[in-house]
Design a protein that fits this description.
Nucleotidyltransferase, domain 5; about 120 residues
Length: about 120
């Protein structure tokens, strides 16, 4: 089982590298990066040209996150980062799923960000 887990990690890293070649954020259109651990989910708006993180959100920042499911937490994180991006003047972003498959928590985070007003 440990070997299978290692193979899954390698496959995700390969997907991540192939995505990052094509997905680049700028000052006008930053990259919305997603990191998903077993317990938490994080999202950040990144300007790759300057190498700076513009906005960051996670489920640790949400007050009622203990009562929500992981998918609901991801949706709330998406709404939070979307609202923060709109306040800073960003309407368009480039979505970077970091090699994760687009379903479950990653999809919920994207839907929350779209509902807040972000376009990608």
């Amino acid at each position: 089982m440990g070997q299978q887990l290692n193979m899954n990690r390698k496959a995700r890293i390969l997907r991540k590298k192939s995505i990052r070649v094509r997905v680049v954020g700028s000052k006008e259109i930053p990259r919305l990066n997603v990191f998903r651990s077993n317990v938490h989910i994080y999202a950040a708006l990144i300007d790759d040209l300057d190498g700076k993180t513009l906005i960051m959100a996670s489920d640790k920042n949400i007050k009622e996150s203990e009562k929500l499911t992981k998918s609901s937490q991801a949706y709330q994180v998406g709404k939070t980062i979307g609202q923060g991006a709109i306040k800073k003047g960003f309407k368009k972003v480039v979505f970077d799923r970091a090699g994760y498959l687009y379903h479950g928590r990653v999809k919920n985070l994207a839907e929350g960000a779209r509902e807040a007003g972000l376009q990608f």
